[in-house]
Specification:
It is built from 18 helices and 24 strands. By secondary structure, it is an alpha/beta fold. The chain folds into 3 domains: about 240 residues, Rossmann fold (3-Layer(aba) Sandwich); about 100 residues, Luciferase, Domain 3 (Luciferase, domain 3, Roll); about 100 residues, ANL, C-terminal domain (GMP Synthetase, Chain A, domain 3, 2-Layer Sandwich). The structure holds adenosine monophosphate (AMP). Keywords: Fatty acid metabolism, Ligase, Lipid metabolism.
Length: about 550
């Protein structure tokens, strides 16, 4: 049939072009690694990203080569992001809190050709660089510094590189399904797995999270993504910010409550986003500093369950609406956001509060279901009561992991999230449990399998299990349950010490509990659920 709409691929470069053209003078505030502040705007960010795209082009990289960033949320990182994805390369954001062996694994698995890092991470990069055979260029996200050269003679400096480049660069019209960024997630067992986002999925996700019933972002806002750019692309906010033309406050390395309260008050932040642990620190600091957080209209809490008391405190003491959201690395991340519907405003305040505690409902573009089994196709009732395996499909949901041939879906094409949940008739999601044995501590994953493998390597330990115990500050912390070998005199301190040179300090279990018998099920499997029930609140009781 004749007559149609024009076709334009959905590209990340469109976002930065739009922000440059229509929101050029909108402020981007950035805290540098040394604590100093930089004030820039979308126009300057766009120009520098084109300069850096010229730098990357001069390296002779090929389409879809991977460029890694190990950096805080700051303006140079934002410029590099748009330059990398915009020019058809893949921006691989890396979590610097990982143990050096894990970083080496991830960088080599991704075949990163360039590693861009904040000065804070210089010692880390220097210590691992000999193990990274594919990396051709290391770039320090800073101005020239002779002290850096001393420990790392071959390093290049971002400011020096872009200073000599033109801000003229024509963004290539790549295919919208081309991969644009890469983020690794902790595997339930074994090594971390890469999740690739595409230009198309990123742009569609940006539309969805900006909607009023979603994270509600607009050109009226000044948003503070406390969630790091290496945690699922700061939940997509740097892309959505360019789309809606809002102002950004990028907090750099200082994520403590006092620093955040000061940023919110000084730069009149209207909407901030982060994991529950961040908000606990912020509420304490606001109280101690006597701040009323006057400008803050909304805050988005996700990555772990938001305690109801937190929602109440923000609302009653600070007139701030807390938006509880659910998502994961494999889902870009937003899969559900808690916003009420018109009919709910007829309910009592208390009933409305109850509704706000759940993880919310899916925005257009994703669909949720609960299923009887992980691989199962039998959909369970949406009655708010029946719990099952939470599964998702949609425009920004994973199909297969990076470098893996097989798809990651159920036979009928849904992604199983590993969460156990209920859905009600309106699609409101309540996360009840997790089927995978991972521990999420302050927004960071710890693999129970990895901790178990280490402990079992101790000659005086017979069998072990690591569970996620609830924790007042970090949401969850690992607790090791161990059965000693006969006649062993080993102590809790011995085991904790045994971990000290094998994993990062923050991953070491908080507690060791010795038992005489481990609960074993009919199929010979260790019953972790029983251990979770018995010892899951041991850290709270303490
Ligand atoms: P990640 O891939 O690191 O983003 O982690 C995703 C997982 O975090 C989900 O599968 C959930 O287990 C958990 N999670 C994320 N958001 C929430 C939330 N609002 N409430 C409870 N658990 C959450």
């Amino acid at each position: 049939m004749h007559g149609n709409m024009m076709f334009q691929p959905l590209l990340i470069s469109n976002l930065i072009e739009h922000a440059e053209m229509y929101h050029g003078d909108t402020a981007i505030i950035s805290k540098n690694t040394d604590g100093s502040m930089t004030q820039t705007n979308w126009s300057k960010i766009a120009k520098n990203s084109k300069r850096f795209a010229n730098v990357l082009q001069s390296f002779g990289l090929s389409l879809s080569d991977r460029v890694a960033t190990i950096a805080w949320n700051n303006h140079r990182h934002l410029e590099a992001w748009y330059a990398i994805s915009g020019s058809g390369l893949i921006c691989h954001t890396i979590n610097p809190r990982l143990f050096p062996e894990q970083l080496i694994y991830i960088i080599n698995d991704a075949h990163d050709k360039v590693v861009i890092f904040d000065k804070t991470f210089l010692p880390l990069i220097v210590s691992i660089k000999a193990s990274l055979p594919h990396v051709e260029h290391f770039i320090c996200l800073d101005h020239y510094d002779a002290a850096v050269i001393e420990s790392f003679p071959e390093v290049k400096f971002y400011d020096e590189l872009i200073a000599t480049q033109s801000d003229h660069y024509v963004w290539p019209q790549v295919e919208e399904n081309l991969a644009s960024s890469l983020c690794y997630t902790s595997g339930t067992t074994g090594n971390p797995k890469g999740v690739l986002y595409s230009h198309r999925s990123t742009v569609l996700h940006s539309y969805a999270i900006s909607l009023p019933d979603s994270l509600n972002l607009s050109a009226h806002d000044t948003i503070l993504p406390v969630v790091p750019m290496f945690h699922v692309n700061a939940w997509g906010t740097p892309y959505a910010a360019a789309m809606v033309g809002c102002s950004l406050v990028l907090p750099g390395p200082m994520l403590d409550g006092v620093s955040l309260v000061n940023l919110i008050d000084q730069y009149k932040v209207t909407n901030a986003l982060g994991v529950p642990t961040i908000w606990q620190g912020l509420l304490t600091a606001a109280h101690d500093l006597g701040s009323r957080l006057v400008s803050l209209k909304r805050n988005v809490v996700g990555g772990a369950a938001c305690p109801p008391s937190m929602i109440t405190t923000f609302r009653e003491l600070y007139q701030c609406e807390t938006i509880h959201a659910w998502g994961m690395t494999e889902t870009s991340p937003v899969g559900a956001v808690n916003q009420l519907k018109a009919k709910h405003f007829e309910l009592s305040e208390a009933e409305q509060f109850n509704l706000r505690f759940s993880q919310g409902r899916p925005p257009f573009g994703v669909t949720l279901r609960i299923s009887d089994e992980e691989q199962g196709m039998k959909e369970l009732q949406r009655d708010g009561q029946t719990a099952g395996h939470l599964q998702i499909k949609g425009h920004w949901i994973i199909d297969s992991y990076f470098g893996k041939n097989e798809n990651a879906l159920t036979v009928d094409g849904w992604f199983d999230t590993g969460d156990i949940a209920t859905l009600d008739e309106d699609g409101y999601l309540s996360i009840r449990d997790r089927s995978k044995d991972l521990i999420k501590s302050g927004g960071e994953w710890i693999s129970s399998v990895e901790l178990e493998n280490i402990a079992i390597g101790h000659p005086e330990i017979d069998s072990v299990a690591v569970i996620a115990a609830r924790h007042a500050k970090w949401d969850e912390r690992p607790v090791l349950i161990a059965k000693k070998s006969v006649a062993s005199q080993i102590t809790e301190a011995d085991i904790l010490n045994y971990y000290s040179d094998k994993i990062a300090k923050w991953q070491i279990p908080d507690k060791v509990i010795f038992v005489d018998v481990m609960p074993i099920g009919g199929t010979g499997k260790l019953l972790k659920k029983d251990l979770r029930e018995k010892f899951g609140s041991v850290l709270l009781d303490a």
